[in-house]
Amino acid sequence: MEWIPAAFLLLCAVSLIHAKNKPTIHTVVANVCEDTPPGAHAFRIDATDKDNDPLTYSLYGENATYFSVDNTTGDVIVARKLDREVYNLLTLGISVSDGNEFVRKNMRVILKEANDNRPIFQGSNFDIEVKENTTTGTSLFRVQATDQDILQAGQIKYSIADVTPSNGLSLFSIAPETGDVTLTGALNYTGLSSYYRMKINATDGGGQCFYSEINYHSNIVFYFITVLDVPDLDPKFLGLPYIGSVDENSAVDHAVYTVTAIDQDTEINDRIIYSIEDSKGLFKISSDDGVISVASEIDREEIGDRVTMIIKATESQPNIHGEYASTTASIQININDINDNKPEFYKCEGSGELQTCEQESQFEVVVAEHSLGGVPIKMMVKDKDKIKSIRLTLKGADKDVFSVEPQFSMVDSVVQLVVKEPQKLDYEETQRMVVEVIASDPEEITFVSTATVTIMIQDINDNNPKFPKDSYLNLNVSEHSEVDTVVATITADDPDTMDKDNITYMLLPESMRTYFDVEPKTGVIYVKNKTLLDREIRPLHSATLQAKDSDGKPATALLQFIVTDINDQPPVINKEYYQEFVKEGSQLELQVEATDADEPGTLNSQIVFAILPSKYSEYFSMDPNTGVLRNQVELDREDLDAELKGKIELNVTATDMGTPALSTMVSVIINVEDVNDNPPEFKNSSYKFSVKEGEKGAYVGTVLAQDLDQTTDFNRIALRIISGSFDSFAIVTTLEEQVYLGNITVDLGVDLDYEGARQKYTLQVEATDRGQKKAVATVEVDVLDVNDERPEFLPSKPAKVKENTTLTEAIGKFEARDQDGNHSLTYEMESLKCRCNGSLSPCDWFVLEPTGDVLVNPGRTLDYEMCDRAVMEAQVIDEYTEKGENYSLIAGQMEIIIEDINDNAPHFIISDSIFAVVSETASKGTSVGGVTATDRDTEIHAQLEFQVSEVKFEDANKNISVTRSLFEAVTTQQKDIYIGIIQTTEGLDVTLKGKYLVTVSATDSGGLSTHTTLEIFTVDKSYRVELQFRNTRDEVVKNQPAIIRTLTAATKAVVEVVAIRDGATEESRASVGAVMVAYFLFSNGTALPKSEVELMISVPQHAHLLDQLGLMYITDSSIKPPETDPLQYISLGIMAGLIIVLVVLITSLVCTRRNYRRKLKAAKAMNSATMVASDNLKSGPVVPGTNKYTMEGANPVLNLNIDTAMVLDLDGESSDVDKVSLDSLDYSDDMNTSGKDTKPVMRKIQEEEEPEDNGPPEYIEPLGAALAQRSQKKGSDSHRVGVSNPAFSTTDL
Predict the structure, then answer these.
(1) For residue 1184, what are the contacts with CB-CB under 8 A and spacing of at least 6?
(2) Among residues 500, 482, 483, which one has the least CA distance to residue 491?
(3) What SS3 state is found at 954?
(4) Cα Rg of the chain, angstroms
């Protein structure tokens, strides 16, 4: 019956297992694509059970219909179609059960965007009216569509898909981002179309989620654009050209013609107002209907056969320019002739187109006596009517002498008289005749006109002319008189009327006409030849003057011309020219001589000398009487033009005193010989040139120098650079037109660099002539920048911008420099990365303008909590680069700091910590828990303040009640995390069992807040443990840290010491120690009762240490242990007991035959353990029955062979000790089991065959009793020491 005690112990152990762990659900949030089809896997519920029990899953709640779950695996399947636009967040109830307990938890299912909606156009009216004169570039309307999708899928781009008619496609454009439709071409209601149908397409940004293929959605809408006509066109006449007719003399208001004009703006159709411009008062027009009628008497003979007028049509309302639109047209009115005019006589002058005629009734004509034939009288007969009929007749006393031609005519005709009887034309009988010419209209006898013609009879020539005298002597004339000089006027008279003032004169003989001549009509005699009229050659001339009348009848008179003397001989200079040589700076004296052929002693022969004004005439003077030429200033050859080569040419005159004075001129050439009296001179004292960098041998510029000396012996110059060149320039001297050119070039071996040390050179150029006279000029050479340098970025300051900003201005600017002077820099973005969650990734939150301005992308919203910084890399390009690369070697980089604003509420950090409070120890200010929270905002916006807003208490029966504010929150901060320490505001009720539900709110500086509920479990006095120490109170206080560490190691619980007080004297003790009052708390809010603490600290390895620290035992507490409900485990105990009894019966049959060897092995092991010195232990105590002993194979219950040296961790040198420990079994050695008491631990084990009546041995170790299958002796006063090994389970047993 040895198995009965063991079975009893095992049944008790099983009965004590009354706590089961609940499953734990880890899934809190799941992301599911909204386009996940029904039947597809959505997510898996993550749940565990510490007992490793099989779990059963289920869903509950109003959203459970959207999903189904595999109750064994936790795989959640989509059951019906999801739609993020209806619910973007679903709260789904999850229930997990392990068969005994079940746990419920609400999780959040976030539906992810899948682009399952197409854009929807907003608005109900799609008819647009636009005036045809709308300005190009005007925004006509805005198309607006919405897409319920978000992110890229919700971004809509607009485009014009089609326009009807098709030519309207070029008239409109649409902004892809905003949908603004803009007029890009001119509308024309009449010239183009008055109606357009526009097909507009809206396409979203596309997206994907469950399926890998990106899908796009689009939608179309038709807009109908009606072009409204505006008054922008002038009116228009219809039926052009206009030609009408009217009879002359028609009545006033007689309708002649009707014109019609319309408004080309057909939809406006404005009323037309008619008017006539330049009608000469003949016609008028009705302003309303355009009827042209007679306004005044019309006479075709006055106004002509036709009248052309300008008619005007004007709209009655102003056009778009505020003016009254109008148009004009020409109308021709033909005037129909009627016979309403009589013939009339006209006197005409000229012929052809130059003929002019005036109405006349009196005519006069001259006819030579005895003339025959027609007599023209410059008469014309005209009838103003278009159809003419004229009869001509003569009347009067002299009508028989003449006849008229023509006698009848159908056209306007020239009228003349014809002499029929010439003998009656006798000047001596009558000088004048008169006839009347009658013109009549045969069709209208009253139409008669009369003209009187007076015929004057002309006399004939029958007398000779006659001079008043027969001769004219002493006609004086000066020699060399000017041509046409009048000498005398001599005329003859003739009594004939026709010869009056009609006599012709001639000078005879013909040879005389080389000296003199006469005007043929006036008789004026004048000089014909000035040169031949020379008194010195021929002083007297004779001639005959002849006069003839119109018939050539002559008359003569004798003429004699006397030539008088004048001053006509100029002075004569005895040389053709004078030439003299003189050195510059010397004195000149030159005699000029001349003679005059005129009579000596007279003014005509007296000579005066003078210098004619010239460029250098002021340098000299001349004696007017002697002709001596001298210089009056010092002669300097360099003052003369270089082209003259020192030669001065003067013109000297010799003039007589006659009237008019005659003179002679001679050239005087003065050669001024050069001397070296001038140094070299530069044209400019300084020069400024420029040259491009990098061009070897390039031409720089030319300096000009000259020596004013005129000869090469003295003006030859050598040019050289004396300083400032730094061996970078060379100069070559050439001569052009007496000026020396110094051509400066870059040295062929030098490559100038604008970006180098020198950008400017100051050269000193020296000019030296052959006489070693010198001059120096300064030459500044600027090295011009050739755009051959790459641009480079300047350091960019970090840009700052607040999140959620709508700022359109630049937030930062890239700046670069180019060492080249002439450059044009543009900027391009190479990359943009945003720091999101601590790592950089590409983004498009910002854009870069070509000017370098950094702008916020208007299509993006900045979110500091998503990304707090951005790094933009840009490239700068020089558009003017001439050579080399045009972009920077190193890209520019700008850091953009996104500043936080208070747009996020505080967020509590979820913690697995469970808080418990020992009600007995709680007082005001006791910390009982804590919360942590953060705010995604930063700086001042992230400053949080915790506050306890509500306190409730939930007792063991789940009853919840509101209590007063027993707790308060104290806010502290650790870096970016704010900690709210929950403290008590007063002592707590020590009798309450349950937990406090403390609602804590976190509020940031902007007033945004959130809250969480904290569970604080209460630990009542039933868990109070009193530890009795042998040491004094002061010693216990001193050793308190070590005591707490040992107790914590033994119990795996937090030890909270309530008090340390002096202990009371017990009957079993001779000394008085101290008592430590403590609670043993676990992290799950529970506490160890006294009984479990006893078991845990009884483990030898902990018991030994506690014994050293003075712990004696756990005292009895007046507080009763917590009562348990035995009914709770009755059914479980009965079932477990039946199973265990069956197992124990089977096991006992197998284990009954235990041999002495196993008992001896255990006894030896125990004896060895008690004999080993503590100094030799390496890894702690190795008491049989502990986990370590079990793992090493020395647990006697398992009946395993062991090597005691190995198991007990003895060194190699300790083999003797092992032997001693084994031999010690033969002796009654004492074992020290407590700090002071010593007593036999174990008696010799009797053989199995030993009779039972010898009585069981006494043991103090439960293990010894178990091995001997004996219980302790009743009535023993030994202390029961319970050993509870946390790692020792029923498996070990």
Answers:
(1) 1162, 1165, 1166, 1169, 1194, 1195, 1196, 1263
(2) 500
(3) strand
(4) 73
Its pTM stands at 0.33
Q: Among the listed ranges 132-146, 505-519, 1206-1220, which one has the minimum average pLDDT value?
A: 1206-1220
The two tokens of residue 1214 are: 């300790």
Closest to 119 in 3D by CA, of 203, 215, 181: 203
d(CA 1287, CA 1293): 11
8 Å CB contact between 695 and 753: no
CA separation for the pair 51, 101 (Å, rounded): 11
Give residue for tokens 């004219």: 472
Cα separation, 40 vs 43, in Å, equals 10
- How far, in Å, CA of 834 to CA of 840, rounded? 5
Nearest to 202 by CA among 227, 225, 222: 222
Cα(328)–Cα(313) distance, integer angstroms: 6
What span, in angstroms and rounded, lies between the C-alpha atoms of 759 and 108?
Answer: 72
Q: What is the pLDDT of residues 673-721, one digit of tens each?
A: 888 888 898 999 899 999 888 888 889 899 999 888 778 778 888 899 9
3 state DSSP class of 177: coil
Among 824, 793, 778, 819, residue whose Cα is nearest residue 693: 819
Whole-number Å distance between alpha carbons of 1192 and 1200: 9
CB 262 within 8 A of CB 236: yes
CA gap 92, 1143 in Å, rounded: 46
3-class SS of residue 1143: helix
SS3 of 479-497: CCCCCCCEEEECCCECCCH
Residue 785 DSSP symbol: P
Cα 735 to chain centroid distance, Å, stands at: 58
1187's tokens: 């986990």
Listed in order, strand segments (DSSP E) in 1100-1203 are 1111-1114
Taking alpha carbons only, the member of 1108, 1110, 1105, 1107 closest to residue 1035 is 1110
State the first-to-last Cα distance of the chain, in angstroms, to the nearest integer: 19
Cis omega (within 30 of 0) on the bond before 406? yes
Which pair of tokens denotes residue 795? 């350091």
C-alpha–C-alpha distance, residues 548 and 467, integer Å: 11
Q: What number of residues does the chain have?
A: 1293
Q: Dig out the tokens for 473 from the structure.
A: 């002597």
For residue 1280, give both structure tokens: 């029961």
CB 898 within 8 A of CB 862: yes
Using the structure block, give the residue that is written with the tokens 């001059």.
775
- Evaluate whether 46 touches 74 at the Cβ level (below 8 Å): yes
Whether the CB-CB separation of 701 and 728 falls below 8 Å is answered with: no
CA distance 316 to 392: 60
d(CA 819, CA 814): 17
> How far, in Å, are 91, 545, 559 from residue 510 at the CA level?
148, 11, 14
Helix (H) or strand (E) holding 580: strand 577-583
Number of helices followed by number of strands (H, E) in the chain: 13, 86
Distance CA 812, CA 801 (A): 9
Question: What is the token pair recorded at 844?
Answer: 């498009």
- pLDDT tens column, 114-170: 888 899 998 877 889 998 889 999 998 999 999 888 888 888 999 999 999 988 888
How many other C-beta atoms are found inside a 10 Å radius of the C-beta of residue 37? 11
Residue 302: how many CB atoms within 10 A of its CB?
Answer: 10
Q: By the 8 A CB rule, do 743 and 784 touch?
A: no
- Residue 529 structure tokens: 């030849």
Cβ atoms of residues 462 and 500 within 8 Å = no
Q: What's the rounded mean pLDDT across residues 1203-1213?
A: 39
What is the helix (H) or strand (E) element at residue 4, kind and residue range? helix 3-16
Strands 663-673 and 577-583 turn out to be parallel
Task: State the Cα–Cα distance between residues 468 and 952, nearest whole angstrom.
Answer: 169
222: which 2 tokens?
């038709």
